[in-house]
Design brief:
The structure holds 2 protein chains of 2 kinds. By secondary structure, chain A is an alpha/beta fold. Chain A contains 14 helices and 8 strands. Chain A has an 8-stranded mixed beta sheet with strand order 3-4-2-5-1-6-7-8, with helices on both faces. In chain A, strand 3 and strand 4 form a beta hairpin. By secondary structure, chain B is α+β, with helices and mostly antiparallel strands. Chain B has 2 domains: 31 residues, no CATH class; 59 residues. Chain B is built from 3 helices and 4 strands. Chain B has a two-stranded antiparallel sheet. A two-stranded antiparallel ribbon of chain B has the order 2-3. Chains A and B meet through helix 7, helix 9 and helix 14 of A and helix 1 and helix 2 of B. Bound molecules: adenosine-5'-diphosphate (ADP) and magnesium ion (MG). The site of magnesium ion (MG) has 5 residues of chain A, from helix 1. Adenosine-5'-diphosphate (ADP) binds next to helix 1, strand 7 and helix 10 of chain A.
């Protein structure tokens, strides 16, 4: 298949870009695709620890760009899952160490070698984000259902559109259905209406995400938690499977009837 | 609280978050400050007054969302259409 290069971005920090990158990469590798996850957060690398590969890094992306090593030498192969690789960021450099053209060249050099290339973008709208997006064909925008996150996502979507990216999909992360139902928090439908781009998945708030990060073991590898299932579905949709976004209704049954049911201790029909 | 809020159509945090976002994004997207809006409004009045007598107090001008794009929508009540278009004689 033709290589698909996908940037994972958000504007705001701490909304789940690295978590999404690690889990979708792992999931797609488990589906049999050859996947590389690139950490484009130069100077603040984290994808290595989230994937649990921090102890095996020798070279990094900047070494490749500067010619200090060959690309295959810098790739860290995951021993738990076949076909999964990490291209780490440099930790002791700054974002100015690379240009957009160099990033684009790096991404293009992976074409033909991999099925999927995920680029974990740093927060912000400056050079780090622009470099991360430079070589990508597609974008996944991660937002949490909070005012500041949605506002930043909107800004990022506008920028991605201005760069000429046409395939932009939304992941809403850290959704808390109870709070949405009780009117305390924005729901997925609200976020979708506001951002007006295609939704590719919903990830619930889930403690197992924190546990997996602490262990350095992406959820996809072992877990069957709600977040793990959510990543599995998103990976399926990326592969082109028709998996209906039924979760929207499940998470957010609205209106009088649901509240009425809740008053009498019964839940909605679906599970 | 959800039940009573909904029942009495009270403003929930969810609703106010959505409304505030919609408002702030209109300005973010168009990159137009309220000050610029006021300038546009004054200029509009000047230009249109060349052709018609309008009610300045009755003017409603706003940015509205349309999917991911923004439209400038103005409603300007016309009191009288000037018979002859003349740029000099309107003062
Ligand atoms: N669905 C989730 N449920 C619970 N915690 C989450 C979830 N997604 C992300 N987190 C936590 O939020 C924090 C920030 O996530 P991270 O992926 O590093 O964000 P970013 O890369 O956008 O800065 C991490 O501590 C992570 O474990
Ligand atoms: Mg990160």
């Amino acid at each position: 298949m033709e290589t698909r290069i996908i940037v994972v971005t958000s504007g705001k920090g701490g909304v789940g870009k690295t978590t999404v990158t690690a889990n979708l990469s792992a999931r797609l590798a488990m589906e049999g695709f050859k996947v590389v996850a690139i950490d484009a957060d130069i100077g603040l690398r984290n994808l290595d620890v989230v994937m649990g590969l921090e102890n095996r890094i020798v070279f990094n992306m900047i070494d490749v760009i500067e010619g200090a090593c060959k690309l295959p030498q810098a790739l860290v192969r995951d021993k738990r899952v076949d076909n999964l690789y990490l291209l780490p960021a440099a930790q002791t450099r700054t974002k100015d160490a690379v240009t957009s053209d160099q990033m684009k060249e790096l991404c293009d050099s992976l074409r033909g070698e991999f099925d999927f290339v995920f680029v974990d973008s740093p927060a912000g709208i400056e050079s780090g984000f622009r470099n991360a997006a430079a070589g990508a064909d597609e974008a996944l925008v991660v937002a949490t259902p909070e005012v500041s996150s949605v506002r930043d996502a909107d800004r990022i979507i506008g920028l991605l559109e201005s760069f000429g990216k046409t395939s932009i999909n939304l992941i809403v992360n850290r959704v808390r259905p109870e709070m949405v139902r009780s009117g305390k928090m924005l729901g997925v439908s609200d976020v979708m209406e506001i951002l007006a781009i295609d939704l590719i998945g919903i990830v619930p708030e889930d403690d197992s995400v924190v546990v997996s990060t602490n262990k350095g073991e992406p959820l996809a590898m072992t877990d069957v938690s709600p977040a793990a299932r959510a990543f599995e579905k998103i990976a399926g949709r990326i592969m082109g499977k028709d998996i209906p976004l039924r979760d929207i209704d499940d998470l957010e049954e609205k209106g009088f009837l649901v509240n009425f049911r809740k008053l009498f201790g019964r839940r909605g029909g679906r599970s | 609280m959800g039940f009573l809020d909904r029942f009495f159509r009270r403003e929930t945090p969810r609703k106010s978050a959505k409304e505030r976002l919609q408002l702030v994004l209109i300005h973010d997207r168009a990159d137009i400050s309220p000050g610029t809006m006021e300038l546009i409004r004054k200029d509009l009045i000047k230009v249109i007054s060349n052709y018609m007598i309008i009610s300045e107090e009755g003017i409603e001008m706003d940015l509205e969302r349309d999917g991911r794009s923004v439209a400038l929508v103005a409603s300007i009540p016309v009191l009288e259409v000037k018979r002859k278009r003349s740029r000099e004689g309107d003062k």
